[in-house]
Design goal:
Layout: H1 2-25, H2 28-33, H3 39-64, H4 70-79, H5 83-92, H6 96-106, H7 112-131, H8 134-166, H9 171-181, H10 183-224
Length: about 230
C-alpha cells in the first residue's frame, strides 16, 4: 500500500513539475506571436500611436513655452510708446502667444473689437496646428479593439471549422484554440486603451496652452486700454 501511495505521489509531483515547466515556457512574446495574421495591423497601429504621441507631445510642449517676462516687456514697450520694439520682440519669439500678440500689435490704432477679432483668428489657427493629427490617436483608440475582435472571430471560425472537419472534440484542443484566438482581442483592447490615454493627455496639454493664449490676449487688450506714459 505504501509503495502504491509513493508511486501516486511521485506521479503527481512529476505532473506538477511538467505543468510548471510548460507554464514557464509560455511568455508574453510567445503568446503575441500566436495571435495570427491580424496581429500585424495591431502592431502597426501601436507603432503609429506611439509615433503620433511623441510627435504631438514635442510640438505642443514647444508651443506652450513662453518667457515669463514676455508680457511684462510687451507692456513696458507699449506704455512707453515704443510699439516697434514690442513688435520686434513678438516676431523673434517662436510661440503661439507671441504670434497672437504680434497680430494685435499690427492692428494697434484700430478699434478694440477689430484687434480682438484679428487675434482670435490667429488663435484659432494656432489651436488647429496644435490639435493637428490628434484625431489619429482617437481613431486608433476606436478601431484597435475592433481589429482585435475581428481577429478573435476569424480565429474562432477557423477553430470550429477544424473541429467540425476532424471531429476532434477534446477539451484541451478546444481550450487551447480559444485562448490563442482571444490574444488579438486582448491586444486590441490594450492598444486602444493606450491610444485613448495618449489622446486625452495631449488634449489636456492643448487646453492648458489655449488658456495661456487666452490669458495673454486678454492682458494685451487691457494694456492697450491703459494710459500711455
Amino acid at each position: 500500500m505504501s509503495v502504491l501511495l509513493q508511486i501516486v505521489a511521485d506521479t503527481t509531483v512529476q505532473a506538477a513539475q511538467t505543468g510548471q515547466q510548460a507554464m514557464e515556457k509560455i511568455s508574453l512574446w510567445g503568446l503575441l506571436g500566436k495571435g495570427g495574421v491580424l496581429m500585424y495591423p495591431l502592431y502597426l497601429l501601436l507603432i503609429l500611436a506611439i509615433f503620433m504621441f511623441f510627435e504631438r507631445f514635442l510640438a505642443i510642449r514647444k508651443a506652450s513655452r513662453i518667457d515669463a517676462n514676455f508680457m511684462r516687456v510687451i507692456r513696458d514697450n507699449i506704455l512707453s510708446g515704443n510699439v516697434q520694439a514690442a513688435r520686434n520682440l513678438a516676431r523673434t519669439t517662436d510661440s503661439p502667444v507671441a504670434r497672437i500678440i504680434d497680430k494685435g500689435l499690427k492692428r494697434v490704432g484700430k478699434p478694440i473689437d477689430v484687434i480682438e477679432k484679428s487675434m482670435e483668428s490667429v488663435g484659432r489657427l494656432e489651436l488647429y496646428n496644435m490639435e493637428k493629427n490628434l484625431n489619429i490617436l482617437s481613431l486608433i483608440a476606436g478601431i484597435a479593439p475592433m481589429f482585435g475582435f475581428l481577429g478573435t472571430i476569424v480565429g474562432m471560425i477557423e477553430l470550429f471549422f477544424e473541429i467540425n472537419s476532424t471531429g476532434n472534440f477534446e477539451l484541451s484542443v478546444i481550450a487551447g484554440g480559444i485562448y490563442i484566438k482571444m490574444i488579438t482581442s486582448g491586444t486590441g483592447l490594450v492598444i486602444g486603451l493606450i491610444a485613448y490615454i495618449m489622446h486625452n493627455y495631449l488634449t489636456t496639454q492643448v487646453d492648458k496652452t489655449a488658456n495661456k493664449m487666452e490669458i495673454a490676449s486678454t492682458e494685451f487688450i487691457d494694456i492697450l486700454q491703459e494710459p500711455t506714459r
